[in-house]
Design brief:
It is found in: Cell projection, Cilium, Flagellum; Cytoplasm; Membrane. This is START domain-containing protein 10. Its main location: other. GO terms for molecular function: lipid binding. This protein is α+β, with helices and mostly antiparallel strands. It is built from 7 helices and 11 strands. Strands 1, 2, 3, 4, 5, 6, 7, 8, 9, 10 and 11 form an 11-stranded mixed sheet that branches. Strand 5 and strand 6 form a beta hairpin. The protein has a domain of 204 residues: START domain (Alpha-D-Glucose-1,6-Bisphosphate, Chain A, domain 4, 2-Layer Sandwich), CATH 3.30.530.20. It is globular. It starts with 13 loop residues before the first helix and ends in a 6-residue tail after the last strand. The longest helix has 24 residues.
Length: 314
C-alpha cells in the first residue's frame, strides 16, 4: 500500500511517488478482470478496507500526454464534460504542488449526493505526469446531513508520453461511496465502471486544445505556480481524527442494496440507464441508480481539482 493514510496532511514526497508508481507498474499482485483492445483493468484486495483497489491501463492514440494532463488538472474544463459535478472548490494550498479541495457530485433518488474533501499532489516531469490524492478532514467542510461523505483511500493518475500524439494513461483508485452500499456491490460495479470512466476522460482530453484556446489559454496554475492565489494551509483547520463515523451506514438513505441484486447490478452496470427514466420497484431503483453513484465516487476522488475559492483561515 501507499505510504499515505486517510487524514494525512503533507505534500507527497519521493517515497510516496515510488510506492504509487510501483502500484501502477507491478501487476504481479493484481487480478486481471477485463481486457479490451488497449484497455486492461485489474483489482487488488487490501488490508485497510473491504473496498478493492481498481487499476486501469490504456494506451491512448491521437492524444498528447500534455493535453491529457491539462484535462485532468483544469477545473474549468471539467465543468464542460463532468455531468455529475454539482460544485467544487479549493480550500487551501499546502505547497506549490499540493492543495486541499472540496467536491460535491449529484446522485439519483433515493440515494443522497456524495461529497469529499481530499488532499491532492501533482508532479510534472519531462515525459511523465503524476497526480494522486486521498481524503483528509478540514474544519471548513464538516460533513453535512444532506450528503454522504465519500472516502478516497488512494486515487491517482500517471500519464506518460509515448509519442508526439500518443500516451500511456494509468488510473488507480480505492474509493468508498459509503451510505448503504455494501462492499461487494461497490467492488462489482467499480471494475465495470472504471474503464468507461477512463474512456470518457480520454475523449474529453482530445477536445481540450480547441476548448482551451477559447478559454483563458494562458492560465494554468498547475504548471505556473505564481498564478495560484489560494490561501496557504493553516494547520489549526486540520482535524486530527475523522469528523464522521467512517465505517457507519447512513441510515437516512431510503434504500439498502439487497443481497440478491448482484446479477441485476452486473447487468445494468454494463449499460447505464437513462437518468430520466423512472424505477418500477425498490430493487430496480437500486440496480439502475447504483452504477451512476459508484461512478461518481470513482471520478471525483482522483480527477481534476475543483475551481479555486479562497476561504478565511486562522
Amino acid at each position: 500500500m501507499a505510504s499515505f493514510t486517510v487524514g494525512d496532511v503533507r505534500p507527497a514526497g519521493e517515497h510516496d511517488i515510488k510506492v504509487f508508481k510501483n502500484l501502477m507498474d507491478d501487476d504481479s499482485t493484481w487480478k486481471k478482470v477485463f481486457t479490451k483492445k488497449e484497455t486492461v483493468v485489474y483489482v487488488k484486495n487490501t488490508e485497510n478496507s473491504p473496498i478493492q483497489m481498481v487499476k486501469v491501463k490504456i494506451n491512448a492514440v491521437d492524444l498528447s500526454a500534455a493535453d491529457l494532463y491539462d484535462t485532468l488538472m483544469d477545473p474549468d474544463y471539467r465543468r464542460s464534460w463532468d455531468k455529475y459535478m454539482v460544485e467544487g472548490y479549493d480550500l487551501c494550498l499546502v505547497s506549490p504542488n499540493t492543495d486541499i479541495g472540496y467536491y460535491l457530485v449529484k446522485s439519483f433518488p433515493p440515494f443522497k449526493n456524495r461529497d469529499s474533501v481530499t488532499l491532492r499532489s501533482w508532479f510534472q516531469y519531462e515525459n511523465e505526469y503524476i497526480i494522486m490524492n486521498h481524503s483528509v478532514f478540514h474544519a471548513a467542510e464538516p460533513p453535512k446531513k444532506e450528503y454522504v461523505r465519500a472516502i478516497s483511500y488512494l486515487s491517482g493518475y500517471i500519464v506518460r508520453k509515448t509519442g508526439p500524439s500518443s500516451c500511456f494513461f494509468g488510473f488507480v483508485t480505492q474509493s468508498d461511496p459509503r451510505g448503504k452500499f455494501p462492499s461487494w456491490a461497490v467492488n462489482k460495479i467499480a471494475q465495470i465502471i472504471a474503464p468507461s470512466t477512463v474512456s470518457k476522460l480520454v475523449k474529453a482530453a482530445r477536445a481540450y486544445p480547441q476548448w482551451k484556446a477559447q478559454n483563458s489559454p494562458s492560465i494554468k496554475p498547475w504548471i505556473y505556480p505564481e498564478q495560484n492565489k489560494l490561501a496557504p494551509l493553516n494547520f489549526e483547520d486540520i482535524l486530527s481524527s475523522p469528523d464522521f463515523e467512517m465505517s457507519a451506514k447512513d441510515e437516512t438513505e431510503e434504500i439498502e442494496v439487497p443481497e440478491d441484486a448482484s446479477s441485476t447490478i452486473a447487468e445494468t452496470s454494463e449499460n447505464l440507464v437513462d437518468d430520466d427514466k423512472g424505477c418500477e420497484s425498490d430493487k430496480t431503483a437500486v440496480s439502475n441508480t447504483m452504477p451512476e453513484v459508484v461512478e461518481e465516487a470513482i471520478v471525483p476522488q482522483c480527477a481534476p481539482g475543483p475551481a479555486q475559492r479562497s476561504i478565511p483561515i486562522g
